[in-house]
Amino acid sequence: MLVHIAIYTMKQEEIKKALYLQCKQWIANRRLKVEKVIAGIVESLENETKSSAGDKHETGRAMLQIDREQAGQQLLEISKIETSFAKVTTTIQKDTVRLGSVVHTSTLQFFIAVSAGELKVDGQCFYAIGLSAPIGKLLLGKGVGDVVRFRESEITIKTIY
């Protein structure tokens, strides 16, 4: 029986690490995408400078500046996500739901880290959510056996690791 428990614990650690790595990659991909957009805008701004003058030119530059500011805001948001994600740990903590917890419920499975959406590990579906997500707020601090009410459903926490 003890061997079975040790294998199960190792399995939980592997799942948690795989979820962690998928979230880390999701963040990196988001950053790369926004950085590419910014690079494209900068290039377009440089090309606008070389093109004809006039109202059309100024309008084009103004629109590119707005796009650049929006991309800058997205980059700032990604930095905030990275800062929050840096606090996520892959160590197993089974007492209560916290940042970094994997939570199996009566309905779905969650990884409390960042709002990266649906992730697949070992043929299982997990939902990566942040603590600011409505379900994340409900689960935070709860333990195994606790019940939360979400969207007219009762959700029982089955396992935390």
Ends distance: 20 Å
Quick one: how many beta strands?
Answer: 6
Mean pLDDT over all positions: 87
The strand line-up of the biggest sheet is 3-4-2-1-6-5
Helix/strand order, N-terminal first = HHEEEEHEE
Give the overall form: elongated
Into which percent range does the helicity of residues fall?
40-55%
Tally the helices: 3
Count of folded domains: 2
| Percent of sequence in beta strands | 15-25%
Output the structural class: alpha+beta
Radius of gyration: 22 Å
Q: Major sheet: size, sense and barrel closure?
A: 6 strands, mixed
Which spans of ≥5 residues are poorly predicted at pLDDT below 50?
Answer: 1-10
List the defining traits of the structure above.
single chain, 161 residues, alpha+beta, six-stranded mixed β-sheet, elongated
Can you walk me through this structure?
It contains three helices and six strands. Strands 3-4-2-1-6-5 form a six-stranded mixed beta sheet. The protein starts with a helix and ends with a strand. Residues 1-10 have low confidence and may be disordered. The protein has 161 residues and is of the alpha+beta class. The chain is elongated. It folds into two domains: 2-85; 102-160, no CATH class. Helix 1 (2-50) packs antiparallel against helix 2. The chain has helices spanning 2-50, 55-85, 134-139, and strands at 102-105, 109-112, 117-121, 124-129, 147-150, 153-160.
